[in-house]
Structures are given as structure tokens and as C-alpha cells.
Amino acid sequence: MLLDRLLTSQEAALGADHVDVAATLQYLGSLALEQKDYERARACYEQALATFERVYGAAHPQSAAALFGLAVLYQRQRDFEHAESFYRRLLDVDARIEMDATDRLDHLTEYALLLRETHRKGEAKVVEQSAASLKRHQLGGLGLTVDVRELRDGER
């Protein structure tokens, strides 16, 4: 695969702990996740996260992206305990840094889905309300509301 060759070249030229290598790993993790190659996805995301946190710290959008990848990975594997621990870390990062609103909305939407999957409807509603408020804010206060369960299928 072309990305594997790119990764090998980057590691040779820049070193395995370079942020460009981590960004490539992040992308490879996303591809592996979509291909349901969960072991590879996990390894890529974990290595990317370690580099991003070492270079940028935990409270950085790149670190948040790797956390989100791991949360979604574990959620798809139905390992809800691990997924939730990554979502909680992610939401803590979201609260501490300036984050793209679309990314924050994705984080809230997926976390609400996890809460529903684990039969925690009350908690899910609170998160869904936060997502709906964010969506209204993004739309400039047009008074539009959104059901986050529709966002998953409608905006991806």
C-alpha cells in the first residue's frame, strides 16, 4: 500500500517519533478502522497518540483526534468500558482547548450513541442536548434544532 511506503520513508527520514509520522499513522488508523482491521487501527492510533501527547501535550487537537479514533474503535468492537474511558478523556480535552465545532459535535454525537448503546438514555439525552445546542450555535442561532441520532447518518 502506498501509505505504508510513505510511513516507512517518513520513519527513515524523520524518525518514528516525528509528528508527520504520527499524522500518517492517524490516517492509516482511520483506514484500518474502516476496513475493520481493528488490531492495526489500535496500533496506529496508540502510536500516533503517544507521539502527539509527547510533542504537543494531551490538550491538543491532534491528541484529541487520536483519542477519538480509539474511542470509536473500541465502540465498534463493543468494548464499551474502554470506549467510554477514551470518550471521557476526549471530552475533557474538548473542554480545555479551542476545538473545531464540527469535531466537537462528532465527539458528542458518538458519545451519545455509546450511552444509548449501553442503555443510559438519561445521560445520552444530556449529551444530545449539548450537541443540539452546539449545532444551533453553529447555525448562528437560527432556532433550528437537530436530533443527534440523525447527524450520524445525515452528515457523514
In short:
The chain is an all-alpha fold and 156 residues long. The protein has 8 helices and no strands. The protein folds into 2 domains: 1-79; 100-156, no CATH class.
Write the layout of secondary structure elements.
Blueprint: H1 2-14, H2 19-34, H3 38-56, H4 61-76, H5 80-96, H6 101-117, H7 121-138, H8 148-154
Helix pairs in contact: 1-2, 2-3, 2-4, 3-4, 4-5, 5-6, 6-7, 6-8
Description:
The protein has 156 residues and is mostly helical. The protein folds into 2 domains: 1-79; 100-156, no CATH class. It is built from 8 helices and no strands. Helix 1 runs antiparallel to helix 2 (19-34) and helix 2 (19-34) packs parallel to helix 4. The chain is globular and about 50 Å long.
Characteristics of this structure?
156 residues; 0% strand; disordered C terminus
How many alpha or pi helices?
Answer: 8
Helical fraction equals over 70%
* Uncertain stretches of 5 or more adjacent residues: 142-156
Largest sheet: none
**Alpha carbon gyration radius:** 16 Å
- Count of the domains: 2
Order of helices and strands: HHHHHHHH
Given helix and strand content, the structural type is: mainly alpha
Measured distance between first and last alpha carbons: 25 Å
Strand content: under 5%
What's the number of extended β-strand segments? 0
- Shape assignment: globular
What is the average per-residue confidence, as pLDDT, rounded to a whole number?
87
